[in-house]
């Protein structure tokens, strides 16, 4: 350590000699808004504290100078910094064009300022459109740029702006090891990258134990206790303004319902911000007794407010970065921070499209206390940054160099790789057959393999692995890239763990079976597992009649009766993964015995097994066969014979099918009265035989408010395999709370 300290001092001495012993580094810090000032202020204090090395010029622009956003330039003056220049650069407007015009206005005004200041280096922070104007101006005027917080990943246009500034900047200060690796991957010179941590953490980690109760009382009221209030900070997403406004509206509705004192901060200056403010006013937030709506809170006080809050909610980077230092629970809404490194205190609600989702997240997070996270800093960023600034040699060539990785000769991209189809391996475990298929993103079954389902666990698992390995190998030959494995199986399944909890009697030795681990280990692919009824519903949601439908139910009519329920676009699993066991809805107290051990279940009337049982009874009593049909001596009587007899006029067979259809219809009526879907999809080999009977029962038995429900027959040829595939093909957008 002593050696490296001496080496550093020697290097700084050499740099001072090269730059001229009396030359101070003239640093221009440009700040655009309250958020970037919280990161830049600690650096500015550090620069100001070492006048023997630095001269500081402060340029203020952007939302700092707008009354609607609190005239936050005043906090810079309160921190005793001399503001050299104030530039009004924000063009008022409510769309993307206003941001472009603001960048253009800044580009027009900045050259004159930089010509007068003639800084040696400009410090630019983050990913705002104002910062892009600063970096562009400085780069074109041959001024060195130090970029703070480059290399990070988030959502929206911010990513593109941040990486564009990275390419313009000469020096980089990053906050995490991942960000450093991203900068290196972007061909930036490793010698010009400093992993320092976030400057705001220098202040955060020393901010505890101040008089926070007076701050809480000032902003939220004297009756508010610690951990019993919420801080909300949400900004528009400029790449999807309409959706972000709707999400903000749902957030406010959820906060009103949650009924806790809430501090709501106004959004950033972005396209859509005025509409968000209008939403606040339409809902009466500024006059609601539970809410305090403010344009700005000084950073020192804001730190105390989030440190002692019961929860923070919104899509601000502050929530996923700074708040982790205190272990405060955070609910991150939408995609604005997608890709950010976060601590365990952050709960993501990627698709915050309903009030219930946001309310459920509040119920899960509010009042918790998580371990403090130091992902973004250890409190020593500023000393590292100042040391880095002192090491800059102004006599080095200004033109930056990129460190491109070596490229081997004669390497070109193969057309087959370009044309590869993203696909899934789908596995369907039925009572008789075991099937594996390669399924494309569009739902095309590219290749299918079928084998008899073995009777023992060991043989079955070995066969699944063998068939999957063969299919994965074949995928290369048919230009398919396998993203993962989806498994559809009978029985009760824990999809979170990939475990079959209990099986149906049709599949033996299939309880408490971990399918995910051995298959994932063997294939080195992610694996998803779900019940076959749920998979049928997922198939309809992605490829069938359920596409775009918010609430629908799928009923499988085959060997057994199963199904799945999609409510608000999400599959319902239930607290013990037993939701949508639709075949075991009881429609008669003294009906026939079901395989589950109960009596009068739909499955005991309308399943293939039930129809086969009745067909055998008729055949044993010589009441099945009618003119035009026959059963060979070795042939097994099945449900198909019963259906054939009914079509040929056998009144007994017709009565049995009518009773089965009525039982299924009564079950559907119960479903309509329970979850009120807008669509019922009948799937499976018996669907066409039951659809009219189900409609008749709905017309006779259902409440008038649900009689308008659509009842349709699935048009999917293989819902089990397609559903298993959709588990994989949709995995990037799956939500778990």
Automatic annotation (TrEMBL):
<dbReference type="GO" id="GO:0046872">
    <property type="term" value="F:metal ion binding"/>
</dbReference>
<dbReference type="Pfam" id="PF00480">
    <property type="entry name" value="ROK"/>
</dbReference>
<dbReference type="GO" id="GO:0008761">
    <property type="term" value="F:UDP-N-acetylglucosamine 2-epimerase activity"/>
</dbReference>
<feature type="active site">
    <location>
        <position position="532"/>
    </location>
</feature>
<dbReference type="InterPro" id="IPR043129">
    <property type="entry name" value="ATPase_NBD"/>
</dbReference>
<keyword id="KW-0418">Kinase</keyword>
<comment type="similarity">
    <text>In the C-terminal section; belongs to the ROK (NagC/XylR) family.</text>
</comment>
<dbReference type="InterPro" id="IPR003331">
    <property type="entry name" value="UDP_GlcNAc_Epimerase_2_dom"/>
</dbReference>
<keyword id="KW-0963">Cytoplasm</keyword>
<protein>
    <recommendedName>
        <fullName>Bifunctional UDP-N-acetylglucosamine 2-epimerase/N-acetylmannosamine kinase</fullName>
        <ecNumber>2.7.1.60</ecNumber>
        <ecNumber>3.2.1.183</ecNumber>
    </recommendedName>
</protein>
<keyword id="KW-0378">Hydrolase</keyword>
<feature type="binding site">
    <location>
        <position position="596"/>
    </location>
    <ligand>
        <name>Zn(2+)</name>
    </ligand>
</feature>
<feature type="binding site">
    <location>
        <position position="492"/>
    </location>
    <ligand>
        <name>an N-acyl-D-mannosamine</name>
    </ligand>
</feature>
<keyword id="KW-0479">Metal-binding</keyword>
<feature type="binding site">
    <location>
        <position position="601"/>
    </location>
    <ligand>
        <name>Zn(2+)</name>
    </ligand>
</feature>
<feature type="binding site">
    <location>
        <position position="603"/>
    </location>
    <ligand>
        <name>an N-acyl-D-mannosamine</name>
    </ligand>
</feature>
<keyword id="KW-0547">Nucleotide-binding</keyword>
<comment type="similarity">
    <text>In the N-terminal section; belongs to the UDP-N-acetylglucosamine 2-epimerase family.</text>
</comment>
<keyword id="KW-0511">Multifunctional enzyme</keyword>
<dbReference type="GO" id="GO:0005829">
    <property type="term" value="C:cytosol"/>
</dbReference>
<comment type="subunit">
    <text>Homodimer. Homotetramer. Homohexamer. The hexameric form exhibits both enzyme activities, whereas the dimeric form only catalyzes the phosphorylation of N-acyl-D-mannosamine.</text>
</comment>
<feature type="binding site">
    <location>
        <position position="581"/>
    </location>
    <ligand>
        <name>an N-acyl-D-mannosamine</name>
    </ligand>
</feature>
<feature type="domain" description="UDP-N-acetylglucosamine 2-epimerase">
    <location>
        <begin position="53"/>
        <end position="390"/>
    </location>
</feature>
<feature type="binding site">
    <location>
        <position position="504"/>
    </location>
    <ligand>
        <name>an N-acyl-D-mannosamine</name>
    </ligand>
</feature>
<feature type="binding site">
    <location>
        <position position="594"/>
    </location>
    <ligand>
        <name>Zn(2+)</name>
    </ligand>
</feature>
<feature type="binding site">
    <location>
        <position position="584"/>
    </location>
    <ligand>
        <name>Zn(2+)</name>
    </ligand>
</feature>
<keyword id="KW-0862">Zinc</keyword>
<dbReference type="GO" id="GO:0006047">
    <property type="term" value="P:UDP-N-acetylglucosamine metabolic process"/>
</dbReference>
<feature type="binding site">
    <location>
        <position position="584"/>
    </location>
    <ligand>
        <name>an N-acyl-D-mannosamine</name>
    </ligand>
</feature>
<dbReference type="GO" id="GO:0004553">
    <property type="term" value="F:hydrolase activity, hydrolyzing O-glycosyl compounds"/>
</dbReference>
<feature type="binding site">
    <location>
        <position position="532"/>
    </location>
    <ligand>
        <name>an N-acyl-D-mannosamine</name>
    </ligand>
</feature>
<keyword id="KW-0597">Phosphoprotein</keyword>
<dbReference type="InterPro" id="IPR000600">
    <property type="entry name" value="ROK"/>
</dbReference>
<comment type="pathway">
    <text>Amino-sugar metabolism; N-acetylneuraminate biosynthesis.</text>
</comment>
<dbReference type="Pfam" id="PF02350">
    <property type="entry name" value="Epimerase_2"/>
</dbReference>
<dbReference type="InterPro" id="IPR020004">
    <property type="entry name" value="UDP-GlcNAc_Epase"/>
</dbReference>
<dbReference type="GO" id="GO:0005524">
    <property type="term" value="F:ATP binding"/>
</dbReference>
<keyword id="KW-0021">Allosteric enzyme</keyword>
<dbReference type="GO" id="GO:0009384">
    <property type="term" value="F:N-acylmannosamine kinase activity"/>
</dbReference>
<keyword id="KW-0067">ATP-binding</keyword>
<keyword id="KW-0808">Transferase</keyword>
């Amino acid at each position: 350590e002593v050696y490296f300290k001496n080496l550093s001092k020697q290097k700084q001495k050499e740099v001072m000699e090269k730059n001229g012993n009396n030359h101070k580094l003239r640093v221009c810090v440009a700040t655009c808004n309250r958020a970037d000032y919280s990161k830049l202020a600690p650096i500015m204090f550090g620069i100001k504290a070492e006048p023997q090395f630095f001269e500081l010029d402060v340029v203020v622009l952007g939302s700092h100078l707008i009354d609607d956003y609190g005239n936050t330039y005043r906090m810079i003056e309160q921190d005793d910094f001399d503001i050299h220049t104030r530039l009004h650069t924000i063009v008022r407007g409510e769309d993307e064009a206003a941001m472009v015009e603001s960048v253009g206005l800044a580009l027009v005004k900045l050259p004159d300022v930089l010509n007068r200041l003639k800084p040696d280096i400009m410090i630019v922070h983050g990913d705002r459109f104002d910062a892009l104007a600063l970096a562009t101006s400085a780069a074109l005027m041959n001024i060195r740029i130090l970029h703070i917080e480059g290399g990070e990943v988030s959502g929206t246009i911010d990513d593109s702006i941040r990486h564009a500034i990275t390419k313009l900047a000469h020096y980089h200060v990053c906050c995490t090891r991942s960000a450093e690796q991203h900068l290196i991957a972007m061909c930036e010179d490793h010698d010009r990258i400093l992993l320092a941590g976030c400057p705001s953490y220098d202040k955060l980690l020393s901010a505890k134990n101040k008089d926070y109760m007076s701050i809480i009382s000032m902003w939220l009221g004297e009756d508010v206790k610690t951990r019993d209030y919420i801080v909300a900070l949400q900004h528009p997403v400029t790449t999807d303004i309409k959706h972000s406004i709707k999400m903000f509206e749902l957030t406010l509705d959820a906060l009103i319902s949650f009924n806790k004192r809430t501090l709501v901060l106004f959004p950033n200056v972005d396209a859509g911000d005025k509409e968000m403010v209008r939403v606040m006013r339409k809902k009466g937030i500024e006059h609601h007794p539970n809410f305090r709506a403010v344009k700005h809170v000084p950073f020192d006080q804001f730190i105390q407010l989030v440190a002692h809050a019961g929860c923070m909610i919104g899509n601000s980077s502050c929530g996923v970065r700074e708040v982790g230092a205190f272990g405060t629970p955070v609910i991150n809404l939408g995609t604005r921070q997608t890709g950010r490194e976060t601590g365990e205190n952050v709960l993501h609600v990627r698709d915050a499209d309903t009030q219930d989702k946001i309310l459920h997240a509040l119920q899960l997070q509010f009042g918790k206390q998580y371990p403090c996270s130091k992902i973004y800093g250890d409190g020593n960023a500023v000393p590292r940054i100042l040391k880095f600034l002192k090491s800059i040699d102004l006599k080095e060539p200004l033109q930056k160099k990129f460190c491109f990785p070596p490229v081997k000769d004669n390497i070109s991209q193969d057309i087959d790789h370009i044309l590869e189809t993203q696909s899934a391996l789908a596995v369907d475990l039925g009572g008789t057959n075991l099937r594996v298929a390669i399924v494309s993103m569009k739902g095309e079954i590219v290749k299918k393999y079928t084998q008899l389902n073995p009777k023992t666990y060991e043989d079955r698992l070995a066969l699944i692995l063998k068939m999957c390995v063969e299919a994965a190998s074949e995928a290369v030959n048919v230009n398919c890239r396998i993203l993962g494995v989806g498994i559809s199986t009978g029985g009760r399944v824990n999809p979170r763990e990939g475990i079959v909890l209990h099986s149906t009697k049709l599949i033996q030795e299939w309880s408490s079976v971990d399918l995910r681990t051995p298959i994932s280990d063997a294939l080195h692919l992610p694996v998803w597992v779900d019940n076959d009824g749920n998979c049928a519903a997922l198939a309809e949601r992605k490829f069938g009649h359920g596409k775009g439908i918010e609430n629908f139910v799928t009923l499988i009519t085959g060997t057994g009766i199963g199904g799945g329920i999609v409510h608000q676009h999400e599959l319902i699993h239930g607290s013990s993964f037993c939701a949508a066991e639709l075949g075991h809805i009881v429609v008669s107290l003294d009906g026939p015995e079901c395989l589950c051990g109960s009596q009068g279940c739909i499955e005991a009337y309308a399943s293939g097994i039930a129809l086969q049982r009745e067909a055998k009874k008729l055949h044993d009593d010589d009441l099945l066969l009618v003119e035009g049909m026959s059963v060979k001596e070795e042939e097994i009587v099945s449900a198909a014979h019963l259906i054939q007899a009914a079509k040929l006029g056998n009144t007994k067979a017709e009565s049995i099918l009518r009773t089965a259809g009525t039982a299924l219809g009564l079950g559907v009526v119960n479903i309509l009265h329970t979850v009120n879907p807008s669509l019922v999809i009948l799937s499976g080999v018996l669907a066409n035989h039951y659809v009219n009977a189900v409609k008749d029962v709905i017309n006779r038995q259902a409440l008038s408010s649900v009689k308008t429900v659509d009842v349709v027959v699935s048009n999917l040829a293989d819902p089990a395999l397609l559903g298993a595939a959709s588990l994989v093909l949709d995995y990037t957008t799956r939500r778990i709370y």
